Structures are given as structure tokens and as C-alpha cells.
Amino acid sequence: LLARSPHVIGYACEIKRGHYLTRSVASVPVLLVRDNKNVLRAFINACAHRGACVAHGEGKAQRFKCSYHAWCYDEKGNLIARPGAEHFEGIDEATLGLKPLPVVEEKGLVVVGLQADVKVAGHLDSVAPALAYPYEEYEHLQTWNFSVDANWKLVIDVNFEGYHFPFLHKNSLHPFAMGNASFDLFEPHARWAFPLRSIERLRDLPEDQWPDCFEGTVVYFLFPSCVLVQGSTASQMIRIYPGAHPGQAQVQFSYMLTEPPTEEERAAHLEGAKFANDLLRGEDFIAAAECQQGFEAGRDSLVLGSNEPLVQHIHRVWDEAIGINES
Fold it and tell me: What residues have CB less than 8 Å from 193, skipping those under 6 apart?
């Protein structure tokens, strides 16, 4: 499923001209490089010699050198230098470049395939009209990488229903947000939106006085495993993949700002990012881990209500992708 599917792995604005960015995508190390002509390329982040990474983290660079034996590559993935080249006579140097991956930018998001034959162009076509956000102008604030003791599907599930708000989030999210929501399906993708309680004040206002921006939060499921949370001042990308075993998930959580902040605003946004991170890791993902324990104890089936339509949809498209038909 994951090897054959395109993946949304970041915001286009995270990779400026002349910069690079590394990502782990379903345990595949990926290197993204944007050259000075604004061409974006993707490679498997593995040296042709012994397979070690040629880049770590992110930054500005046009050359990438393996820290193991110092083989060096340019921004197009070509091998341009290697110590002791005389020891590798007879090997065609043209075959020793970084292995390219298909990559495209759509709606200000970066989409990558993990195999050369994965079609990435058009992956977001069905949901594109709903992604009307200027992602190219956003600013990165903070990113966390961590694991969760639950299957990756359970970790995704917690993001797509408000049924749990009054219970799991009784003292955190529930006091200012409502769990009743609207939803839309876009072929394999989906979105749902839940309002803030402050939206109730609009009852007594003429519609022409309503704010331009939805007074709440919109959450997208971008097949197969990207969760995109959109608010008025911030956007969050939660990428979720299988971990080392079926009872573990690997998560990358990135927090972006919709516009550059002042120093005072940055401090407030850092508090907002901490709240979002604490909510996920201290409540949602704790619940997912408990669900995993229930499965491992023998509770091996899901019961989904009519008030959980997106969870049903997401499991349905996963099943369809791997050829499992509904019974």
C-alpha cells in the first residue's frame, strides 16, 4: 500500500531555492533538493557505495557528502567525487548517482513516490479545489518526530471524529470546540470541519457580517497517511507510518504559520504549538495506544457508528487499495 502510493511529505515553502530537506517516508530515507533555478528533485537518501545517508536534517547546500566514506554528489544526484576512486576501476560512474524518486508540487504541497513507477502528478486533483490555501507563503515554526505504541491506522483514526471530544478532551479541547462537524469525500481523500463554540455568536449577525475565515478547524485526510490540520493562523501536518512492528507507528508533526509573526506573536504561536502537541501526544495518541492494547488482548474488530463516517471512509479506501472487498 505505502510503496505503491504517492505521499504528501511537506509544504513547498519548507524548501527554498538552493536548499535541501530530508524526510523519512514509511522508513525510506528521502532527500529533497531545490536548485537555484527552483527545480525540485527527490532522491533516496543513500550513497551508492555502502548505502549511508548523504544528508541530514535541512539547510542550504549544492553538494551532498556521505559522512561514511565522503562520496560526494551534486544537486542533480550525480556522483562528482570519491576518495580512492582507483579502487573502483571498471565500474560505470554514471550508474553511481543517487537514485531519483518521482516528485511534484501540487497546491503548495510536495508529493513523492517511493518507487520510480509511482505516478505522483494528479494525486491531489480530486481534493485540489478544497485546498485553497497559500501554502507557498507559510512559515515553519516547529517539528517533532516521535513514535506511538499503536498501529499506524489507529493513530490516524483519532483525527477524524468528534465523538470523543466531550470525553477524551473534556478539559482541553471540548470547552472551546464542538465535535459536531460536516464532512466531504474527494475520492480517496477527505475532509471534515468542526467549529469553535464562538461561532454561535454568528446566529444574531447578518450573513454579510460573518468573517471571511471559517471559525473553526478543517482537517484533511490525504491518502494514504497524511493528516493536514488547517486553522486561521496555523497549519499542522501529521505524517503517520508503520513503525518497527505492527503495534508501533512513526509520526512526524510539523507546525506552520500562515504568515510571518512578530517576536511577540511567535511566543504566542509557540504556546499554541505546545498545546497542539500536548493534545495529540498526551490524549489522542494515548487513546490509540490503549486501543492497540485492546486489539492485542483479543478485541480484534472495530465497531464504527454512523457518527464516524470518515473513519469508515478511510478504512474503506485502505482496503480497496490492497484489494480487500467489503464482506
Answer: 181, 182, 183, 214, 216, 217, 218, 219
- Tens digits of residue pLDDT in 171-221: 999 999 998 889 999 999 999 999 999 999 999 999 999 988 888 999 999
Task: Please tell me the predicted confidence (pLDDT) of residue 93.
Answer: 77
One-letter amino acid of 324 = I
Give alpha helix (H) positions in 38-86.
none
Element spanning 229, H or E: strand 226-230
> Residue type at 158?
V
In a 3-state reduction of DSSP, which class is residue 19?
Answer: strand
Determine the average pLDDT of the residues in 94-98.
89
- The owner of cell 504568515 is 259
Q: Which three cell numbers stand for residue 96?
A: 553511481
Which of 98-127 are b and which e, b meaning 16 or more Cβ less than 10 Å from the residue's Cβ? beebbbbbbbebbbbbbeeebebeebbeeb
**What is the phi/psi pair of residue 20, to 5°?**
-135, 165
Rounded Cα distance, 319 and 127, in Å = 20
Q: Does residue 326 carry a pLDDT above 60? A: no
Burial (CB < 10 A; 0-12, 13-18, 19+), residue 40, is middle
d(CA 105, CA 58): 18
Q: What is this structure's pTM?
A: 0.94
**Residue whose grid cell is 447578518:** 206
Cell, residue 151: 498501529
Find out whether 64 and 79 touch, Cβ atoms under 8 Å.
no
Q: How far, in Å, CA of 9 to CA of 248, rounded?
A: 20
Q: What are 21-54's pLDDT values in tens digits?
A: 999 999 999 999 999 999 999 999 999 999 999 9
